[in-house]
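INFO  loader      accepted 1 record
INFO  loader      residues=323
INFO  predictor   begin
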Amino acid sequence: MAMKRRTALTGVLGLGMALASSITFSQEYSQPLRIIVPGAAGQGLDLLARIFAGKLAVLLKRPVVVENRVGAGGIVAAQVAARSAPDGNTLFFGFAATHGILSSLHKTLPYDPVRDFEPIVPLTYSSNVLVTSKQSGLKTMAQLVAAGRKKPENLTMGSPGEGTTPHLSGAILDKMAGMKSLHVPIKTNPGLEVIAGRVDYAFLSTPVAVEFVKTDRVNALAVTSPVREAKLPDVPTMIEAGFPGYTVTAWCGLFAPAKTSAAFIRQVNEAANTALKDASLIASLMAISSTPIGGTPDDLRKRVQDELAKWPEVVKDAGVQVN
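INFO  predictor   done
INFO  writer      dumping tokens
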């Protein structure tokens, strides 16, 4: 099993050497606090985890290590975290797949997203952007829906693959709009396929979409978050575009193994909420189009419950093969 471990130094992200030198090893714990991340180093979740790791190290006054566990869309990392000792030395950087979508894509998982974890705090969310190719001539949601209704499955939608958030975002749109898109799994970059005109539309991550929109290579029709994206202020939300209740976000939060002490949960929750109010951390998040959330363990618990209730029907409607 491939694993990469890197220590999150407290001097990164503008924290400053003065702060770093003031940190003392916590007397309560005999080892660094590790954050298990279900993604490769340098990718989205890893970047987010390292932003928080630096701040948490300062606030908790103990070293923080980011441990990357890659495999099965997050299942490998979640299983490792779930089986870790509840000793206050392990956190899990859970997200919409590990604590939502995957439960609908698999008949059984080697972990239980509810029973095997203690929710600590919701951290951030980011949006996807529905973009169309210039060649399609589709410049509004009304035009896209009309095309999807006129010739079912003639309208093509690209995504990274079956069961991914972009794919399921399209499935939700199809059902709400009463239309039918032909799903085209793309192993490379769906955005480039849209630009080339080989697929009509796709849901892209905000950083990718922003770059393509700024260079006028795609049309941006709507964002999937409940509020508009700061970097695309003229692009409406799906709700504003006529789809009440349509919200799909890539969210993440901190969890601990089940039976971790309430005192530790409270300590990390307080530190994370403090970090989420820090101007430098907020700036780092906004730079990668990620919006801070914050809140209580119950807030994260409800988010997980809502996700687990949301996706089974979507997966069924999308015709995804459940393993």
